[in-house]
Amino acid sequence: MKKFGGPAIFFDRNDINTDEIIPAKYLTEITKTALKPHLLEDLLLDGKAFDPTAPALQNANVVVARENFGCGSSREHAVWAFEVNDINVIIAESFARIFRQNMFNCGILAIQLPKEDINKLFAIEGDVAIDVDMSKCEMTATSTKGGEPVVCSFDMNSFDKDLVSAGGWLAYADQKF
Fold first, then answer.
1. Closest CA to 88 of 69, 106, 65
2. pTM for this one?
3. Each residue of 124-150: pLDDT tens digit?
4. DSSP bridge pairs for 7
5. How far is 176 from 123, CA to CA, in rounded Å?
6. What gap in Å lies between CA 148 and CA 15, rounded to an integer?
7. Alpha carbon distance 78, 125 (integer Å)
């Protein structure tokens, strides 16, 4: 089974849309890897441009954000951009429906948590690593500064769990059919 989790990067913003995740001008690329250097290059945080070359993003396997993550157009390229950058978990208060399903289809875990749990994650000081236990539908966030880990449970239907555990739709279909 695929392991989910790793170092996390936090985006304290609602409504991060697919144009910010991968700008439309790259949608003509014919390989997923061509999207890799352009992940989040149009993202604005507090009105300022995010640096997509930031070490925190380069080392991250997990993204934590606020509400309505992945809103905008239904482009699958946005999920591919995370996939080729080794982001295997995105945690948010809510997701755009199609983006969330595209994540499962590509073998990336979408964890939806209540606002109270998201606030606990944002309150952790220092660098944060997140470990996901798919069998328990539970995630644990630990800080490099120590302290008590934050443990959160999440809901996931059995089909989406099987899809993500297999590594996405194609791997799932290869196993089942």
1. 106
2. 0.95
3. 999 999 999 999 999 999 999 999 999
4. 129
5. 42
6. 30
7. 29
